[in-house]
Structures are given as C-alpha cells and as structure tokens.
# Entry
Amino acid sequence: MISSGLLKVICVGWVGGAILIGLLINGDRLYSWIGRKFTNEAEWMLAKLDIMFIRVEAKKLRTYYGAYLISLFALGFFLLPSAGSGAVFGVLIVLVGWKMPRRIINILFKRRVTRFVVQMVDGLGLMSNGLRSGLNVNQALSLVTEEMPNPISQEFNLVLSQNKLGVTMEEALSNLSIRMPHDDIEMFTTSINILKETGGNLAETFDKIAYTIRERIKIENKIAAMVSQGVIQGVIVVIMPFALGGILYTIDPERIRPMFTTIPGWVLLSIMMSLQAVGGWTIWKIVQVRV
# Structure
C-alpha cells in the first residue's frame, strides 16, 4: 500500500512536471493568463540580465524559473500535514514568491547602478585629468575603460563600441543614461552633450559633478546608518509571529494543528498573513528615505 508521503510526492511530481512542460512548450495558448505572466517575467529577467552583461539562454532561464515556481508549491504542500491545507498554502507561497526573482534581479541591478555612481567619482577625476592633458572625450572614456574595473569599464566600453559602429556620441551617452537610470549619471551625460554643442570647460564640469556625487554619497550613507535601526525592528516584528508559531507547534503540535487543518484556522491564517503583509509594507515605507 502506498504511503501518504509517497502519494504526495507522486502527485506533486506529476502535476508539477505537466505544468512545467506545458509552460515551456506552449504556455501562452495552454494556460493563457498564467502563460503570459510566466513568459513576461522570463523576458523581463532576460532583458535585465542582458543590461547587466549577464548572458543566459532563454530556454534555460524559463526552465529554471518554472522549476522554481513548482518548488515553491511543493514546499508549501509538504509543510502542512493535510493535502488540502498543503495545496492552499502551496498556492499562497507561489503567489508570494512569484516575483521574487524579479525583486532579486532589481536589487542586483540597483547595486550595480550604485557601484557605477561610486566609481564615477574616480572616473570623472581621471577623465578631467585626461582632458587637461589634451585628450578628447572619446580618449578620456577609453582611459577609464583601461584603468577602472567593472561596471564603469563595461558601460563606457559599450558607449565607445556604439560610437565606432556609427552611433553618435550624444546618442550613445543617452543610451547609457537609459541603461543606468540615476540622476548623477543623467547629469553626467547631459553635461557632455550640452557642452559639446555650446562649448565650455568639460574638465571643470567633471570636477564639479564628482564633488556633487561625493557629497550626495556622504549624505546617503549618514541616512542609511540612521534608519538601519528601524529596518531591523521591522524585520523582527514581521518574523516574530512565524517564530512563535513554530515554537508553539514544536511544544504542543496537537493544539496548533487545527490552525492548519480546519476552515476557521485557514481563515485566521489568511487574516494573519494579510495583516503581516500590510504591516511589513507599512514599516518598509516608513523607513525608506529618499535623498
């Protein structure tokens, strides 16, 4: 006789495999809304990773993403004792974690932009010295690509490559500000484009931009240090109910089990998860300070 645990494994494997194969072969027609969401998320991740110079095959990415969603469902399915509550909890985990890869990639992208902006302080100083020594803008950019690490080296090298292929320097720099959306980067690209047309001292302008970026970074670091305490408190408040639930389940599982196996328990869990989500989102918005 097949045990309940083995039966769960067979059910999840069969359903999950069918869903994954269907999404990979013909997701848009077979699953309509789910297929479109799956495809859109995969395409967005491919485009964002390409901007960060991370090359991934489209088929592999879709496979990994589909396997990730099925793993989330399986995790929720096996965490709870009954099949009904496990299926509901698995769907909830999938809904919560649906866009988690997008958020992780966004975090990596923001870190890349931040690292680029920090490198601009030294890069602009290097370009300023190069311009004073008689180099033009293209040569100054080339100097930065040779002397500095990624990501500034990659981005400036792409600007120069586009310019060699026939794209004007103004358009190549505008593409840079689109790929790396940040006020300091836009200020840098706009200043070059304007001064190339109207004339002016680019070296002095670069020094002023570098000073502005340096002062902004100081202010941002000071604010980050001040709000870190609020962030830690918010994380503790959000995690505490789950930690207490785990402790109570370990101490007296029979008393807590109805919370996961009965309809009133599911209703209370849904209300709790909703309130936790609203509370966590509110705390996150409070501690976010934009400069």
